[in-house]
Amino acid sequence: MIPRKRYDLVLAIYPQSRGFAFVLCEGWLAPVDWGIHEARGANKNARCLNRINSLLELHMPDIILLQDMSGPEARRAPRIQQLNDRIAELAELRGVIVRKYSRAQVIEYFYRKANSRFKPLCPTCAETLDERRSQDRNFRGSRAGLDVFP
C-alpha cells in the first residue's frame, strides 16, 4: 500500500453580517468542506465563534486565512472587524497559523494565476479579460456573489 501524503489543511473564513462562510481545502486547490453558518438575533459574534471553535476541533487546520480588515479599503462594519480579530485570537490560542490578505491581494493573485495558466491555452480569452479589466476597474471576472472577499 502506498502511504498517502497529508497536505496542509487550509481553512478560509469570511465573516459577514448574517454569520460567516468557510472553505476547508487540503493544500491550496482541493476543497474538502465548505458552508455558511447563519447567526441571527443577539450575540452573533459569540455564536459564530462557538461554531468556528467546533470547526477547528473537528478539522484541526494548519492555517487559517482571513480578510485583512486593517486598511481603509476593507469598509467592514465594526462588529465584523471585531469578529475577524476574535477568530484570529481563537486560532492563535489553538496554535494555528493565521494569515490575513486584503481583497485586492486575493483578486490579484487569482488574476495572475489565471493569466499564467490560460494564456497559452486561450490567448484570445486572456486578451479579452485583460481588455475588459483595463476598461472597467470594477470588473471581477465572475458573478458578483461568488467573489472571494467581496
Plain-language structure description:
It is a single chain. The protein is α/β, with parallel strands linked by helices and 150 residues long. It folds into two domains: 9-101, Ribonuclease H-like superfamily/Ribonuclease H (Nucleotidyltransferase, domain 5), CATH 3.30.420.10; 104-141, no CATH class. It is 41% helix and 23% strand. It has helices at 44-59, 78-93, 103-118, 123-135, and strands spanning 9-16, 19-26, 30-38, 63-67, 97-101. Strands 3-2-1-4-5 form a five-stranded mixed β-sheet. Helix 1 packs parallel to helix 2. The longest helix is centred in the middle third of the chain and has 16 residues, at 44-59. Mean pLDDT is 79; it is low at 141-150.
State the gist of this model.
The protein has 150 residues and is α/β, with parallel strands linked by helices.
Salient structural properties:
150 residues; alpha/beta; Nucleotidyltransferase, domain 5; 5-stranded mixed sheet; 4 helices; 23% strand; globular; disordered C terminus
Write the layout of secondary structure elements.
Elements (H helix, E strand, L loop, with lengths): L8 E8 L2 E8 L3 E9 L5 H16 L3 E5 L10 H16 L3 E5 L1 H16 L4 H13 L15
Parallel strand pairs: 1-4, 4-5
Antiparallel strand pairs: 1-2, 2-3
Helix pairs in contact: 1-2
The neighbouring-strand order within the major sheet is 3-2-1-4-5
CATH topology of the largest domain: Nucleotidyltransferase, domain 5
Structural class: alpha/beta
Order of secondary-structure elements: EEEHEHEHH
CATH 4th-level superfamily of the largest domain = Ribonuclease H-like superfamily/Ribonuclease H
Biggest sheet features = 5 strands, mixed
CA-based gyration radius = 17 Å
> What percent strand?
15-25%
Arithmetic mean of pLDDT: 79
* Number of separate strands: 5
Residues in helices, as a percent range: 40-55%
Q: Given the C-alpha coordinates, what overall shape results?
A: globular
> What is the CA-CA span between the terminal residues?
44 Å
Which regions are unreliable across 5 or more consecutive residues at pLDDT < 50?
141-150
Number of helices: 4
The CATH C-level class name of the largest domain:
Alpha Beta
What is the total number of structural domains?
Answer: 2
CATH architecture name of the largest domain: 2-Layer Sandwich
